[in-house]
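User: Sequence in, structure out. Go.
Assistant: Echoing your sequence, followed by the structure tokens.
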Amino acid sequence: MPHQHTEHHPVPAFSRRELMQRAAVLGLVSLPLLRGAALAQSTPPAATPSVPLPATRTASDYKLSLAGLPAVAIPTDVSARKGNKAAWPLLTGVSIAQVEIPEGTWRAPHYHTNTSELAVIVQGSAKAGLQTPGQEWMELEMGAGDCVYFPLGWPHWLRNTGSSVLHTYFNYGHEQPATVEVPG
């Protein structure tokens, strides 16, 4: 019987901040995949962007500081800094929002008509709710490092269940997400 050699490699240690940054980047990079295999299969391999980018781009055009954007109030005292086409004209097919939900409040029920959403919990704890097309509500307990996927058109909400501000990133598969608030 041949001897099998198993190598053990040390696992790199990441700080909590590095781990959260990597999760947020992974979520944003994965968004085009969430748009569905049908889209990928129907796009010709030699497809070019529908809007050509100007040749005069500089390195700074590819960076956006969400912290430098003004916070926008959304229902129930939640603040969001939105990295969408309006704030970052270079974007095509993706966007992101840095969202802070105060203790004891929530991002009220809403849905998106043109994109799915991938929410990443950076700091704090939460409960996420999403409603299926069959009108069934599902709820999930969330903590730092957890992600939740909200499919296109599904009503959803996120409630802060912790004792401090909930810090999250919402990632979208569209450069200008369209949001519809659900009356409650």
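User: And one key feature?
Assistant: The longest helix spans residues 16-34.
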